[in-house]
Amino acid sequence: MTEDDIPEERHDAGFDVVKARRAAKNPNRPGERCRASAGRFVPVVDRRRCEGKAECVAVCPHGVFEVGRIDETEYRAMPALVRFKLWAHGKKTAFTPKANACRACGLCVVACPEKAITLREAPTRG
Q: Are the beta carbons of 63 and 12 closer than 8 angstroms?
């Protein structure tokens, strides 16, 4: 995917074509440039780092991400310093409800200001 391949319109709330094109120009962008088949890779969010700023939502052309409040059980299991940071950010974090739509373009990885997202190959189903 090049910056010109990013759709001008997407029906998901929060998509920002300008931010997506900026991320597409990043030379450190990992992944398969949106050439992977959907579901072959999944984005993984490190909730200890994520501050819920929604840059992943803004740049993902496939609507994989949403930002919401962290589950209270998961929140309580975090170290004290991480809990404080999460609390300071309204307990917001990124989730991947449509991870199976990921095409491994890597835009989310380079757009995340906290470096909280990685791409991993999805486990094979047997």
A: yes
Q: Region of 102 please: left (phi>0), alpha (psi -120 to 50) or beta.
A: beta
Within-domain flag for 83: yes
Is the CB of residue 40 less than 8 Å from the CB of residue 122? yes
**11 found inside a domain:** yes
- DSSP E strand boundaries for 9-85: 41-45, 66-69
pLDDT, tens only, 47-88: 999 999 999 999 999 999 999 999 999 999 999 999 999 999
CATH number at residue 102: 3.30.70.20
Helix (H, G, I), strand (E, B) or coil at 15: coil
- Burial class of 60 by CB neighbour count within 10 A (0 to 12, 13 to 18, 19+): buried
Domain region containing 49:
3-121
For the chain, the domain total comes to 1
- Residue-wise pLDDT for 2-47, tens only, equals 555 565 555 567 888 889 889 988 999 988 777 889 989 999 999 9
